Amino acid sequence: MDYQQILENIYLKIQPYAQVGKQADYIPALANVDPDQFGMCINTVQGEVFMQGNATTRFSIQSISKVFLLAMCLSFEGEELWRRVGKEPSGTAFNSLVQLEVEKGIPRNPFINAGAIVLADVLLKHLKHPKEDFLRFVRNLCGNDSISYNEEVARSEREKSYLNAAIANLLKYHHNIEGEIEEVLHFYFLQCSIEMSCHDLSNAFLAFAHYSPFEYGEIKLTSSQVKRMNAIMQTCGFYDEAGEFSYLVGLPGKSGVGGGIAAIYPQRYSVAVWSPRLNQKGNSVMGIKALELLTTETEDSIF
Ligand code: GLN
Fold it and tell me: Which domains does the chain have, with CATH numbers?
């Protein structure tokens, strides 16, 4: 497969969408990002790497970090984890709290904010040095020791965290947060603020494309757990646009409001794409289009 040629074709074909949507601005620091950027990177399981556009520019990964969070929590807790969070698509926005009231503080899945806030609480219990340990895991996954948090973005989000604070309070009320709300939210915002490029993300997600035992320092997953993580990405990775993403793209993946999307073709490749302009659901307009073109041009998706 000539992935480099495919990436070039995709780049040309997405140009009509270059001005559609706008970058997230509810996190003030993200509103300053130049919206007119696009990057994409594919890593094959054979070890080849293909890049296009701003593939080495770092951006805020935001909710893509929820995949790293889930990998760590599954490694520590195994199936026990599912007592505190579900694995059903939410059908609601990433920051919705309506379902929490009805379902007594058990978030629908780990990839909406409520679920990830519970997972942040779980990790705080297991890690001696949460901030350092989480970063070390992400650095190990992508093989890049220069990856870091952007504490300015985390602080900017914390200052305007009315909705996430409401979610955390509702979780605490239903006894699904053990730690202090402030501490849990602080850790959650830090994770979201990690900056990576498409190249870094695609490297990191390659670990989920191999169905062989996963071992990065103390974080270990069986190949069955990796397969199940992909199942959750497929059904829950794009909030209330998960069905549409499956329909258009047909790969498990995860998006973030920084405009990044990472996706996986199990046993074949990982791919990351980034463009800051988002649609109404908080997913990158050009990112989704580019991935749709990828599985169309290659005439191949998991379906
Ligand atoms: N930090 C963001 C938030 O909590 C992450 C949301 C996202 O990327 N969808 O709102």
Answer: 3-62+196-297 (3.40.710.10), 64-192 (3.40.710.10)
